[in-house]
Every structure is written in C-alpha cells, then in structure tokens.
Amino acid sequence: MAITIKNLHSQLPENQLHEAKGFTTASNNSYLKKNNDGESEWSQSIHLSKSALSADPTPLEMLRLEVTDDGVDMAAGHGPAITFFVGETGGSDWGGTIGVVREIESDADSASAMVFHTAIDDTYPAERMRIGSTGDVTITGGLTLGTDLSVANGGTGASTFTDGGVLLGSGTGAVTAMAALADGEMIVGDGSTDPVAESGSTLRTSIGVSRAESFVLSASDETTALTTGTAKMTFRMPYAFTITDARASVTTAPVGSVLTVDINDGGTTILSTKITIDAGEKTSTTAATAKVISDTALADDAEVTVDIDAVGSGTAGAGLKVTLIGYQTTPA
Fold first, then answer.
1. What is the pTM for the complete model shown?
2. Are residues 217 and 177 in the same domain?
3. 14 phi and psi, to 5 degrees?
4. Is 91 exposed, middle or buried, given 0-12, 13-18 or 19+ CB atoms closer than 10 A?
5. Residue 225: which of 196, 248, 250, 243 has the closest Cα?
6. Residues 324 and 253 grouped into a single domain
C-alpha cells in the first residue's frame, strides 16, 4: 500500500525544497525534495512533536495508520503495518514488519493483535511474536534473556540444574536442585527444612518402616531337663542375614547357677561374651552380664548351631529357645 503525499508540485525544479508542515526536528525543518531519479524523499529523519496534555493518561496519537473495511470482509491477520528493509548487496531486502491485525474475520468484531515479523536471509518475513487483544503474548521460537528470570516473575532464578536432581523451592529465592538420588535413596522431609535424601536404616526410621525379623530356634523340648553339649540344635540360614540382637529363654528357670548358651556360625562362635540366663530367671534380657555379638554376618545357607555350655546347678532348666533378631542383608 503506497502513501500518497498530496499537494506536492510536480513541476518543482530539481533540489527545490518543499516544507512538510507540522514535521520538525530539534534543529530545523525536515522536508521533501526531489532526488536525481525524480522521486520525493525526506531530507533527514522525521521528528514528530506535539505538546503533552497534562490531564490525559492515555497515549497521545502522533501518527495514524488506517485500513478501512469498505464493502469487503476484512480477513483475520490483515491490518496496517510498518515494513522495514535492510541493506543487501546492490540494494535492500524486506527484513521485517510491525503491524496491528484483526484477530477474527467478522465485521462486528474489531479485536486486534500487534504482530512482529522478521525474516531469515532471502525469506519472506514470518510472525515471531504476537500481543493479543487480551494481553496474551505468544512468541514463536526461543526466548533468550540477559539474566535468569526471577521466581517472582514466573521463572526459576537459575540458569542450570543438576542432571537428575529434584528441584526445591525457596520462597522468592532461586529454585535449587538436589543431587541425583543414589540407588535405594528416597526424599524425606521434616515439615520445616529442606527435604533430604535418605536410605537404609535412617530411611526406615524416618518413614516408620522396620526391616527387623527374627528366627526363634528351639533347642530342647518343653519339659526335659537341659544338659550341656554342642549342636543341641542345627539349622541353615535361608538367606544372608545381619544380626542386631540375640537372646535366650526357658520355660523352667535354672536354679543354683546361670544357664550359658553359645551360638555358632559354621562351628565358630559369633559371641565374644556368651548368652546367660541368671538363676531363677527365664530370660537372658535380665542377665547380670550382657552378651556381646562379635560376628553379625550370617551368609546365605550358613550352618547355625546352638551349644549349651552350662546349666543350673540345682535345677538345670528346661524348654530352651534361642532368638536371632536382625534383617536380610540383601532383600530380594
């Protein structure tokens, strides 16, 4: 669409000046003149100036571009625009356009969007950004910022994160990332501070889950008086097991002296201080001398035996059970 400048004298001699009323620069008037090809051109940059209206909070119109809908159905995407040409060898090429276009093809709806088009070398300009009539902004292609977009403005406040890390919010501060979780780790929070990665017994304690299990081994019948000896009971472990505690109990308490029990792994004791049941007691948990476990690891299919090293001197005791407490070393 060409802009016609009216009232120019077509017979003006070459280089004769024609003032453009209302267009002024800071130093002197801008004007149209005829160039060597007989075309009109501005002598310098155009400066539009108008006194401000102090009580008017709206934009002040300085230049109007208008497309009228006279007897046609104006298409969506059509509207007035300013085009820009950039220099190229031997001339110039269309570099971009800023325009305001109709959003809906309807004579009864003038909702408009401002659009920005740019062109890759030797291509027709394409729309890159649109500000819709409701204020929504659509950008085609990547958005590059000079600085990280803050959380308060809808960003993360950071330009990079740990690969595989879980993101943590920090109020209006920048989002941070945890280290990538190791095998078997879970994220656990306490309701106030940043969550942390935990595993193993620490994790089980935090989430209230126990892996503890136990084996109760019967080393005698319920009524026959106990006697000393090795391998009073033998069994094999069904899987690798880590011992955290061991204890013994009887149905008939020893009298006169303590009952002493040993536990062996493949014939070798796992106790540096053996389990005892004091005279008159039925459980080792009340013993005056606490047992000490020196070998906590029982391998899969390990042979476990129970020895009775001493019985009560007055009443031997009866109904011996030995309990191994712990957890599977490598759960299935």
1. 0.48
2. no
3. -60, 135
4. exposed
5. 250
6. yes
